[in-house]
Design a protein that fits this description.
The structure holds 2 protein chains of 2 kinds. Chain A is α/β, with parallel strands linked by helices. Chain A has 21 helices and 18 strands. Among the domains of chain A are: 7-225, Rossmann fold (3-Layer(aba) Sandwich); 265-367 and 582-641, 2-Layer Sandwich (Transcription Regulator spoIIAA), CATH 3.30.750.210. Chain A has helices spanning 7-11, 50-53, 57-68, 82-91, 120-130, 172-187, 193-203, 282-286, 295-309, 327-338, 354-363, 381-387, 393-405, 424-445, 475-490, 507-516, 522-531, 545-555, 563-567, 588-599, 617-621; strands at residues 40-49, 72-79, 109-113, 145-149, 165-166, 213-217, 223-228, 237-238, 266-269, 271-272, 291-292, 313-317, 344-346, 371-377, 410-417, 451-458, 499-503, 582-583. Chain B is an alpha+beta fold. Classes of the chains: A alpha/beta, B alpha+beta. At the A-B interface, helix 1 and helix 9 of A face helix 1 of B.
């Protein structure tokens, strides 16, 4: 089958759209392989705008891992903005990849990476533009296998109607294993059609195929059970875990776009997983155990990546970057190597402690010391015990004192509102904390113009966390609580003017909560929202709460349940949760105990430094913690000029 | 500090690169190819690069110019080849000279453009060109940041002609990856020389003028390419090489 580029047809539309460069491809380090020389072809999508999707590490890694294989090709596709979508519909141009502008429908696999549930409507737009039926049951053998991955895929039930399968966990090895199964099936002449290849995938135990599971409901709307309906399909599907990150030094050749994107830097993942045990944090729960990349592995990736990209900044990524056992040596070594070349180093996701100030100083040896961000997450000591964020106010004040003392002028504090058991008092403590920070800053620097910005996000309970049973705070209650906090800050004569206050209203959080803990019935809501024009739900200017609420009314008609049932309702121990048959390795009983500990304000330590507390992941997944120190240092690079 | 003037292109699909996009891509190419850049002083030092008169997004160009400052001496041609190698295909570095004369930007008096009008009968285009040239003034309007602006598009035009008809000849400006689906359709190609005046008159404005004077309304967007910019030879209506003076001048400080 010859597959033609849609570019000539697309090109005629580009003079009429915003930022046309995002649709033309040709990024540095992108790859276009010969279509006919490959027998398994992947279209990879990050279902958001190019400027957000391009820097996504997950897609970049899989793109390179797949393209390195002989006979396999991978191209990328992103959500097109509504201006181009309208023109594509008018002129019959299908969803295309940016690499060779091939139509997505021509590929064997259409893989989507969901960092957030708010990309679901964008998936439907892309499927429709591609000419692929929206629902799995309507697809033919000539349609690609639609596969979901990413953190949101840990509960794929809300999109079960639309995807053919889902993979949970690390994708590097998984995409190669799936490729081999598809290759064999194609080589045999595609026996048994779509069902056969999906069955082969399902039988591995590492690919979830919703059509092979029936969901039965109780009269009250809760799930009775989820049962496999085909022979050889396992009761539970396991997550994938890659061990020894040094064996997977991807991306080796990071993509460098011409268009401006949200992260203009070269990123290196310095470790994967986190065992700090913050109870609200889905990422920390589902990516266990901690696996560090070695200091030398990091050094090599940075060196090769900078040469391949020309970026001016290196981001050392992980869920809590300062927790790498050799972070001090890494920061010092990289600063020694690159300060002279004017390469900036950044360390997102840092803890609140004085050690981090030393680190931050190292990373800004001759740069500007403008702002530092910390995330105490909860305003009161009590609520921080509930969420297991083990930071005392004393720690925080000591840390900011060190920051101001070292020339930093602004501190940004990140909190959540709507946490389980939270009261107005807990939230009002945030104002107290901000005042204390400014007071300390004035004291240390002897200056009055000290700023502290308080940034607040709404808490959304997530699957596979101890808070998966928790009631979500309603949008109205969230807004009321935020209003009280805002007033408390504004009314403060002495400090109010120095406190910046950033927050979002509670409505988007309710939709996110509905999609996070939804089940297969939620799919009808997603489809109704899409059909009513829902797009780019992660973007404030495109998001419509009313659209989602009327979609929910339509989608849930006759079920006896509603949005509140999914969001503000507390679940019980006995309830079958929609994602129970997806095995993140976490023992459900352990999660429940941790939930009970939360209610009793009991904290849990980090298993990297204390004995195992049986979350279940390592024995279940046959994995282990991989951490240093290695004792190795980064040596200066010999400069060849 | 040695300064080098470079000529570069925006070809094919990379004509959709905005000027900001180009700047980022170029500065990254400087880093990748380890060019010994001179940096500005100050808290956040920037490599010394200055750009002249960039073509609008979506317009192709064979003749864009910029100037860089180096901390170490380099052979201009070797530097050009090295940088060209590091830039995406389509953003090509095509010429380099050492700076030996001042006032480069003032030398960019006019631009020569090629305007390709697909699905337009050459005879219709010829009539419109004649009507436009016959007019003393052609008022056009354009939406600018400061609102709708009305100005004359005729005065700045030093030359405008219809090139001999070439039906469905594909792409002569190196549009890679884009087979001409419009083959067989009529196509009119204009050559246009416009003086750099204030407010700027762009090829788009001349097209608006053609519509205003002769009702010429191309059904598909015009494909515009800047072929040259530099000193204007008023008599012949041609644009000459703005780097010629530097090439001819004696090497600085030798």
């Amino acid at each position: 089958m010859t597959v033609e580029s849609v570019f000539p047809r697309l090109e005629a539309l580009l003079p009429h759209v915003q930022k046309p460069i995002q649709y033309v491809g040709g990024e540095l380090n992108s790859t276009v392989k010969d279509w006919d020389a490959c027998d398994v072809r992947w279209a990879l999508m990050y279902p958001d705008a190019y400027e957000v999707g391009l820097p996504n590490q997950g897609v970049m890694i899989l793109y390179e891992v797949l393209n390195e294989r002989e006979g396999v090709l991978a191209e990328r596709t992103y959500s097109v903005w509504p201006d181009l979508e309208a023109l594509m519909r008018e002129h019959g141009v299908p969803q295309f990849t940016v690499d060779a502008h091939r139509p997505v429908k021509a590929f064997d696999v259409f893989g989507l990476s969901f960092s957030t549930e708010l990309g679901y409507t964008n998936m439907l737009t892309a499927l429709d533009l591609a000419g692929i039926p929206l629902e799995s049951k309507d697809r033919t053998i000539d349609d690609p296998i639609v596969l979901a991955g990413g953190h949101a895929a840990f509960n794929p039930e809300p999109i079960a109607d639309f995807i053919d399968c889902a993979v949970i966990g690390d994708g590097e090895q998984a995409v190669l294993d799936i490729t081999e199964i598809i290759r064999a099936w194609k080589a045999e002449g595609r026996p048994g059609g779509r069902d056969e290849v999906l069955l082969r995938l399902a039988k591995t135990g590492g690919v979830y195929v919703p059509r092979f599971y029936d969901v039965e409901y109780l009269a009250d709307g809760r799930i009775a059970r989820v049962v496999p309906n085909a022979p050889g399909v396992p009761w539970r599907v396991s997550k994938h875990t890659v061990m020894d990150l040094d064996e997977w030094p991807y991306p080796k050749q990071p993509l460098v776009p011409l268009a401006e994107t949200v992260h203009e830097r070269m990123s290196v993942e310095i470790f994967r997983g986190c065992t700090r045990g913050c109870r609200f944090c889905q990422a920390g729960m589902i990516t266990r155990p901690v696996r560090e990349r070695s200091i030398t592995g990091i050094g090599e990736m940075v060196e090769r990546g900078l040469k391949a990209t020309g970026f001016e900044e290196v981001g050392l990524l992980s869920l809590s970057s300062a927790d790498h056992t050799e972070i001090g040596e890494i920061a010092k070594g990289l600063a020694d190597r690159y300060t002279e070349d004017k390469i900036g180093l950044s360390l997102p996701s840092t803890r609140v402690d004085a050690f981090n100030i030393d680190l931050a100083n190292e990373l800004t040896r001759n740069g500007r010391r403008s702002g530092l961000t910390f995330a105490p997450e909860g305003g009161s000591e009590r609520i921080r015990k509930v969420i297991n964020k083990m930071v005392s106010e004393e720690d925080l004040i000591r840390t900011v004192a060190a920051a101001y003392g070292n020339g930093w002028r602004q501190v940004k504090l990140y909190f959540m509102v709507g946490l389980p058991t939270e009261t107005d008092e807990d939230v009002l403590q945030i104002a107290e904390m901000a005042k204390n920070v400014i007071q300390k800053g004035r004291e240390v620097t002897g200056q009055n113009d000290i700023r502290c910005t308080v940034s607040i996000g709404g808490f959304v309970p997530k699957p596979h966390t101890p808070f998966q049973w928790a009631p979500q705070l309603s949008a109205e209650a969230t807004d009321a609580r935020l209003g009280k906090l805002r007033d408390a800050i504004r009314q403060d004569r002495k400090y109010g003017k120095n406190i910046g206050f950033r927050y979002h209203d509670g409505k988007p959080g309710i939709v996110e909560g509905l999609l996070s803990r939804g089940d297969r019935r939620t799919g009808k809501i997603i489809r109704a929202a899409y059909e009513d024009g829902g797009r780019f739900d992660g973007w404030r200017e495109h998001f419509s709460y009313d659209r989602w609420m009327s979609a929910a009314e339509k989608g849930l008609a006759g079920t006896g349940i509603d949005v509140e049932w999914y969001t503000t309702r507390e679940r019980t121990y006995e309830e079958v949760l929609p994602w129970d048959h997806l095995d993140s390795g976490l023992d459900k009983d352990w999660l429940w105990e941790d939930w009970q500990d939360a209610l009793e304000e009991v904290e849990v330590e980090d298993c990297r430094w204390t004995p195992c507390f049986d979350c279940g992941v390592c024995p279940q997944m046959q994995t282990e913690i991989q951490i240093g120190p290695t004792g190795v240092k980064l040596l200066p690079l010999t400069v060849v000029k | 500090m040695q300064r080098i003037r470079l000529r570069y292109t925006k070809r094919g699909r990379l004509r959709f690169t905005s000027h900001r996009d180009f700047q980022r891509a170029f500065e990254r190419a400087l880093r990748r190819s380890a060019v010994p850049m001179a940096y500005s002083a100050g808290f956040t030092p920037h490599p010394k690069v200055s750009y002249a008169n960039a073509a609008p997004t979506g317009v192709a160009s064979e003749a864009e110019y910029l100037e860089i400052g180096l901390a170490e001496f380099r052979d201009p041609e070797a530097l050009r080849a090295q940088l060209d190698e590091s830039m995406p295909i389509g953003l090509d570095i095509t010429d380099a000279v050492e700076v030996r004369t001042p006032n480069f930007v003032e030398r960019l008096e006019a631009s020569e453009w090629q305007v390709r009008l697909d699905s337009v009968e050459p005879a219709d285009a010829a009539r419109a060109v004649a009507a436009f040239l016959a007019a003393e003034q052609v008022e056009v309007q354009r939406q600018t940041k400061n609102g709708l602006r009305v100005f004359d598009a005729r005065g700045a035009v030093a030359a405008l002609e219809l090139l001999p008809s070439q039906v469905g000849d594909g792409n002569d400006t190196g549009t890679e990856g884009a087979a001409d689906v419009r083959s067989g359709n009529p196509c009119a190609i204009l050559r246009l020389v416009v003086r750099h005046v204030t407010p700027a008159v762009r090829p788009d404005d001349v097209l608006s003028g053609l519509r205003a004077t002769a009702d010429l309304a191309p059904p598909v967007p015009a494909e515009v390419t800047r072929l040259a910019q530099g000193p204007l030879d008023e008599e012949s209506g041609t644009v000459t090489d703005p780097l010629a003076l530097d090439r001819a001048a004696a090497p600085a400080g030798l």
